[in-house]
Amino acid sequence: MAEDLSAVIKVPYVHTKASVGTTWTQILLPRWVCRVLVVSSKAAWVTMPSSETPADGGSVGTHKAAIPQDSGVPFVIRGPESKPVIPGLEYTKSIFIAAQSGTCTVTVILEAGAS
């Protein structure tokens, strides 16, 4: 089930989701987020809408990145000024996470850009 963090106004923001299964769980991001760190208690997958359009509760597809057990992977969502690095780029509004097997606990840390 999706986790809606789009209304979050505290920075940085830490959110932990337990019992993430092997289908995609969508994390909706606030507009201000510039960097996301995804940490998983067990091996997990992470993706963003790109050449595939993942769906909350959907099957894990081909285009994904692996997160090793007890490790974190950072993703830069936009430049530190919250402006497009290149005009015309479209930034993701969500990320998708799934356990590689069984379930895992995932922590998402949201960071803002320059003030």
Report on the structure:
The chain has 115 residues and is mostly beta strands. The chain has a single domain, classed as Sandwich (Jelly Rolls). 0% of the residues lie in helices and 41% in strands. Strands 1-3-8-5-6 form a 5-stranded mixed beta sheet, with no helix packed on it. A 4-stranded antiparallel beta sheet has the order 2-9-4-7, with no helix packed on it.
Instruction: Give the topology string: H per helix, E per strand.
Output: EEEEEEEEE
| Number of discrete domains | 1
- What would CATH call the homologous superfamily? Jelly Rolls
> Would you count the extended β strands for me?
9
Distance between the termini: 33 Å
Helix content: under 10%
Reading off the top of the CATH hierarchy, the class is best stated as: Mainly Beta
Cα gyration radius (Å) = 14 Å
Strand-residue proportion: 35-45%
**Total count of helical runs of at least 4 residues:** 0
CATH third-level topology: Jelly Rolls
Shape: globular
How are the strands of the biggest sheet laid out side by side?
1-3-8-5-6
Largest sheet: 5 strands, mixed
CATH architecture group name? Sandwich
Which residue ranges are poorly predicted, with pLDDT under 50 across at least 5 consecutive positions? none
In brief:
The protein contains no helices and 9 strands. With 115 residues, it is mainly β. The protein is globular.
Task: Name some characteristics of this structure.
115 residues; mainly beta; five-stranded mixed β-sheet; four-stranded antiparallel β-sheet; 0% helix
